[in-house]
Write a structure and sequence with these properties.
Shape: elongated
Number of strands: 11
Strand content: over 45%
Number of helices: 0
Helix content: under 10%
């Protein structure tokens, strides 16, 4: 029910920066427990990049810690990922996700369609 739309991907040189945004729609009446980002590089499994959850705070993959920053605007149901010091290894499709639930109901996970980030070297 929750729609997630990512934006901000593109092509950047190694060492550069990009900022991603993801807006959740259709979340009225729901608790947004967490929003975050995964990525999937060619030939690799989808992996966690960063998570911002009400219960657990902020979590980063070791591969991006210190370079990426996740933030969330709860009022707008929007999550951001600021990516600095980008490396060629960061090239991937980045997927937004959200964990939401109606009060008294089990949570569900929603996924965006992804936005391509390409880092050239």
């Amino acid at each position: 029910q929750v729609g997630l739309v990512e934006s901000g991907g593109g092509l950047v040189q190694a060492g550069g920066s990009l900022g991603l945004s993801c807006v959740a729609s259709g979340a009225s009446g729901q608790n947004v427990n967490a929003m975050g980002w995964y990525r999937q590089a060619p030939g690799k499994q989808r992996e966690l990049v960063a998570l911002d959850s009400t219960a657990g705070g902020t979590t980063y993959s070791d591969s991006v810690k210190g370079r990426f920053t996740i933030s969330r605007d709860s009022a707008k149901n929007t999550v951001y990922l600021q990516m600095n010091s980008l490396k060629a290894e960061d090239t991937a499709v980045y997927y937004c996700y959200a964990d939401t639930n109606y009060p008294g109901e089990w949570p569900r996970t929603s996924w965006g369609q992804g936005t391509q980030v390409t880092v050239s070297s």
